Amino acid sequence: MQAQDRAHRIGQSREVRVLRLLTVNSIEEKILAAARYKLNVDEKVIQAGKFDQRSTGAERRQMLEQIIRAQSEDDDEDEVPDDETINQMIARSEEEFDLFQVHCLLFFVNLSLTC
Predict the structure, then answer these.
(1) SUPFAM superfamilies from the xrefs (predicted)?
(2) Which of 30, 33, 22, 104 is nearest to 75 (CA)?
(3) What is the C-alpha radius of gyration for the chain, rounded to an integer number of angstroms?
(4) pLDDT digits (tens, 9 = 90+) for 48-78
(5) Rounded-to-10 torsion of CA 46, 51, 53, 54
(6) What angle do helix axes 57-76 and 27-49 make, rounded to 10 degrees?
(7) What dihedral angle (degrees, nearest 10) is formed by the CA atoms of 67, 71, 72, 75?
(8) CB-count burial class (<10 Å; 0-12, 13-18, 19+) for 52
(9) What is the value of pTM for the model shown?
């Protein structure tokens, strides 16, 4: 999360893609979870409070409920993506996606021939 923010702070105007490679039960996974938690808390405090005193208690409550619902939807998306989904995430164009798919297919064909 910091890497993408840092790239834009130093003047990057083009698209930035940051790939995080995590293994299950690793320290990297725990660090990412802590960073997400901090961002989530920050969002809840700032968005629900708004600190401008113009929003009513009911508006703040509604905003907080929306944030909590969105968080629970995000939690559902924490499953391990398949190869095609990963290729879609990292491909910059349709042609690149097709190329990644071909490489995946060739990898698995070669793997099955050697086993």
Answers:
(1) P-loop containing nucleoside triphosphate hydrolases
(2) 33
(3) 20
(4) 555 556 667 787 777 778 777 776 665 555 6
(5) -60
(6) 160
(7) 170
(8) exposed
(9) 0.42
